[in-house]
Amino acid sequence: QQQVKQSPQSLIVQKGGISIINCAYENTAFDYFPWYQQFPGKGPALLIAIRPDVSEKKEGRFTISFNKSAKQFSLHIMDSQPGDSATYFCAASPSDTGKLIFGQGTTLQVKP
Amino acid sequence: DAGVIQSPRHEVTEMGQEVTLRCKPISGHNSLFWYRQTMMRGLELLIYFNNNVPIDDSGMPEDRFSAKMPNASFSTLKIQPSEPRDSAVYFCASSPATGSPLHFGNGTRLTVT
Q1: pLDDT averaged over chain A?
Q2: A50 Cβ under 8 Å from any chain B Cβ
Q3: Residues of B whose CB is below 8 A from A96
Q4: Of all residues in chain A, what percent carry a pLDDT higher than 90?
């Protein structure tokens, strides 16, 4: 029940295309859903986050879509760029603990 | 803001040796987390502290692992004795309050031979 399942494991997209990464969770106590971006040799960095009171959040080219009834959320990267090539992690936590549980990660490669 | 600072960046040690990883959280942050990252298991939460007090250490793999936070600006993760299966990247993260975004350091890559 503590797991966050992420797919796909890897993704190759052409420059200008849309990258979509999906996550699913079981624990209904989760109420904070961030996405982190990680470059080689660096720690994960917060990209965008959502709480279940909204179904979508957009920041620039990055959008989170959230489906509370299905217990799923996804990251959409519009107009994908080679600089977006990185590993992306979804995560979830109950806000009263801040204890983030991470998905397994998706390695994104954007081809020029 | 220097961010979360971890040391050393790389550590290579022999099986059976003691290893100490260090973390300086962002000033003013009240929560500190230790994560381990491997290809097989991804990012696993080992332990976290609120206001220097350990809150949840259920992710610590076994008694060989211990973590301390003697003050608000310093934490250590110790492995004694180390084993080859402990080889991983260990991340420290801090956040200003419970439920706030985590800020990660750049990790310590540990190799146990």
Answers
A1: 94
A2: no
A3: 98-99
A4: 85
Query: B43 and A89 in contact by Cβ < 8 A?
Result: yes
**From A95, A97, A104, residue closest to B42, measured CB to CB:** A104
Question: CA B73 → CA A110, B4, B6, B32, B78, distances in Å?
Answer: 39, 10, 12, 10, 17
| Whether residue B90 has pLDDT greater than 60 | yes
| Whole-number pLDDT of residue B26 | 96
Query: Is A43 strand, coil or helix?
Result: coil
- pLDDT tens digits, residue range A77-110? 999 999 999 999 999 998 777 789 999 999 999 9
Cβ <8 Å between A96 and B99: yes
CA atoms in the 13 A half-sphere facing the CB of B36? 20
Chain-chain contact of A41 with B33 (C-beta, under 8 angstroms)? no
Any B CB within 8 A of A7 CB: no
